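hey can u run this one w/ coenzyme A bound, need the structure tokens asap thx
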Amino acid sequence: MTLMQMMWDSDAGQVLLEDGCYCSRRRSGDKTTISEILSVKKGAGVKMLKHLFDEGAKVLVARCPSNYASNRWYLRRGFTLIETSFTRSSKIPLNTWRLTRQELQETPS
Ligand SMILES: CC(C)(COP(=O)(O)OP(=O)(O)OC[C@H]1O[C@@H](n2cnc3c(N)ncnc32)[C@H](O)[C@@H]1OP(=O)(O)O)[C@@H](O)C(=O)NCCC(=O)NCCS
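ok here u go:
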């Protein structure tokens, strides 16, 4: 682990992979909830998902506004859409996605 990763991989729940992906996540038991994920290099997103499983998650949960193009990425990586709901603060419905390690689609299409 590099110094940069140690600085980011803090209790605040932020992970920065040198492969080019940042994520903010909350761990609770064997469930990890992704609050934000941002990749600047194709291939880094799936590496982050693998990293989150490697650090102990059995299931990943992510919420994404239903009008974001990245919903297709969740689908592409094997996530299951488990709920679409409205929040008080937004008129855009929020999708809730769920993934186990066995469901992760790692290979290129
Ligand atoms: C979503 C995101 C993290 C994916 O990162 P990545 O490193 O490209 O992901 P991967 O390498 O694991 O996956 C690449 C595959 O997903 C697809 N994909 C990635 N982003 C996509 C998007 N926004 N819309 C549709 N498909 C997308 C690619 O076409 C590619 O498919 P292929 O393997 O069949 O060629 C990245 O696009 C991103 O940072 N988006 C902006 C921030 C964002 O929307 N975050 C999610 C908020 S809910």
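Helices lie at 3-8, 44-54, 71-76. anyway lmk if its weird
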